[in-house]
Amino acid sequence: MILARVEGSVVATKKNAKMTGSKFLFVRPLLVDPANPANFKTGNNTLVVVDELGAGEGDVVLVAQGSSARLGAKDKDTPLDAVVIGIVDTVDVNKQIVYRVQ
User: Fold this and answer.
1) 3-class secondary-structure state, position 74
2) Which residues form the domain of 44?
3) Has residue 35 got a pLDDT over 90?
4) What is the number of structural domains in the chain?
5) Is the dihedral of CA 70, 72, 75, 78 positive or negative?
């Protein structure tokens, strides 16, 4: 699993039939900043993830990838590689709150 911040949404009018009705989000992974563990550093890569939980722009989410992601889908044969499995309320690193929903 990875932590990521939702940066936006992705619209695909033509897609695999098993993906009809799926919401796609554009997310960027978050890393704990080694210089200041009380802050996140934004990762360089980005992902498109399927979201069935209702996350929105700016939310921090838990993302599962690969075969684990398919287990979170309605249909285990859905062709997806990354899925939101949680919307994060808080993150505590070294007994410091790094992230808290306002």
Assistant:
1) coil
2) 2-100
3) no
4) 1
5) negative
